[in-house]
């Protein structure tokens, strides 16, 4: 857990309205605040296992109470980064592969009722990429593909400053059909990308070789069999990036996620493999590949954009995200 109580003074009024941002990951749930489009100096982590042990809405509500009590900042809006599929109503979690207790829950409405404020949901990959386009390494880029390797695998595509959504969950590539060799982590579909290129797949490799997950890439220097498994793992990640790029034709590719930040992770090897999966010679376009600057805190920079979309009545996202605990107006129903 990281936390600081300094620089938590928030301006009074609409412009300075603080947003509580929750990044729900497969391992940890991270909390932070955004105010005036800038992160406040506060971070707090909880174990995601709390959502698996009982009612996940109650568990999240207790975490929110704990954070608000510690900071004395009661938000009007909570933005949650969801690692999975969100329904077109912007409120119901359809499927979260690594947190199945959230499946089918109307998280925005249910948590909003408990917390007494508006709760907005966004896919974690979209929120992270939005943050990097607003305050990170791709501020000067357009047509940006972001691929993130954490406990699971997610991707998002930004063009003209807006995320591409398809019918709602475009580029949720973790469940993309993918046939590969190697053991599959327990409880995962064997024929999907996440089973072979995610943090959970990496944990399975570490367990099989009896090495700590935190030092798995360094340990490969002393084990040929481990090095072979990790080489295959990196190849699968490169294929994932190549396939996502083939679908959206990005001008820039952003890579991030906890796996990429691990000690000893072979970034240069990955870059070389990705180059082999892209039509660089055919298109005569150079590879513009960048690494995430902010890590998970990119969602703090991206959260204000979710609130702006919610308030912009003419935007597609605002037509499917509604204020938690309130019925949509007849006018909004006509827009849906």
Automatic annotation (TrEMBL):
InterPro entries: ATPase_NBD, ROK
Organism superkingdom: Bacteria
Keywords for this protein: Kinase, Transferase
Region (Disordered): 309-336
Classification via Gene3D superfamilies: 3.30.420.40
A Pfam family reported for this protein in Swiss-Prot or TrEMBL: ROK
Single Gene Ontology MF annotation: kinase activity
Family indicated by similarity: Belongs to the ROK (NagC/XylR) family.
PANTHER family, A to Z: BIFUNCTIONAL UDP-N-ACETYLGLUCOSAMINE 2-EPIMERASE_N-ACETYLMANNOSAMINE KINASE, ROK (REPRESSOR, ORF, KINASE) FAMILY
Entry protein name: Allose kinase
Organism from which the protein derives: Paraburkholderia steynii
